[in-house]
Design goal:
about 25% strand, Helix Hairpins, translocase, Immunoglobulin-like, elongated, 2 domains, about 230 residues
Length: about 230
């Protein structure tokens, strides 16, 4: 998660975020080259004392500065389109989780298992001394196994919300009466924080998301314990 002084992107925890980071670096390189070239030309033109009295038109340079931006845009658009299709790709999932946004908390349901569902609220100020991060910790984390393809089905019960975790490169709107779907894979264990990124009312800032990536064995133990508790 980001800390004070972090100017770059968060460390990626999924293949999707890795591709987003590569595309960001690719685009920033092109922008830096363009900015440097245009800045050099502007400064050089401002301090240049020479004038060409016979330069009224130059079709060659007009052709170049018409075609060259088009080529540059193609170099940006092709990786962007590839990435858009990758983000929408729905692979064969090993685990399906349904999440519903409420004002102002999230509820989760593990559709592949019986009677495993819970609500996830932000921890109250009384719990801050025992929590890791203010306004980001929740009472019920969302455990998932890492190196496992996850399908997340997202909806809302009242207003539009948005389920977002930056380090995974996933973001999907939770719309009442509609099911949205995202697919992702977490490639390392850890805690991954997110927040609702759609303004949804007075307490919009107080419905964090906390995903806990654990091993498959630990996840199956958690499933077994919760299944027994619900019986």
């Amino acid at each position: 998660m980001p800390t004070w002084g972090s100017l770059g992107l968060q460390d990626s925890a999924s293949p999707l975020m890795e591709q987003l980071t590569y595309f960001h670096d690719h685009t920033m390189l092109i922008l830096i080259l363009i900015t440097s070239l245009v800045g050099y030309i502007l400064v050089n033109s401002a301090f240049n004392l020479y004038i060409n009295r016979f330069l009224l038109e130059n079709q060659e340079i007009e052709i170049i500065w018409t075609i060259l931006p088009s080529v540059i845009l193609i170099f940006i658009a092709m990786p962007s389109l590839r990435l858009l299709y990758l983000l929408d790709e729905t692979n064969n999932s090993d685990l399906t989780i349904k999440t519903i946004g409420h004002q102002w908390y999230w509820s989760y349901e593990y559709s592949d298992f019986l009677d495993i569902e819970f609500d996830s609220y932000m921890l109250t100020p009384d719990s801050y001394p025992t929590s890791n991060f203010r306004l980001l910790d929740v009472d019920n984390r969302v455990p998932i196994p890492f190196n496992t393809q996850i399908r997340l089905i997202i909806s809302a019960a009242d207003v539009i919300h948005s389920w977002t975790i930056p380090s995974l490169g996933v973001k999907a709107d939770a719309v009442p009466g509609r099911l949205n779907q995202i697919s992702f894979l977490v490639n390392r264990p850890g805690l991954f924080y997110g927040q609702c990124s759609e303004i949804c009312g007075a307490n919009h800032s107080f419905m964090p998301i906390l995903l806990e990536s654990i091993s498959v064995d630990s996840f199956l133990n958690w499933i077994s314990n919760n299944s027994e508790a619900s019986l």
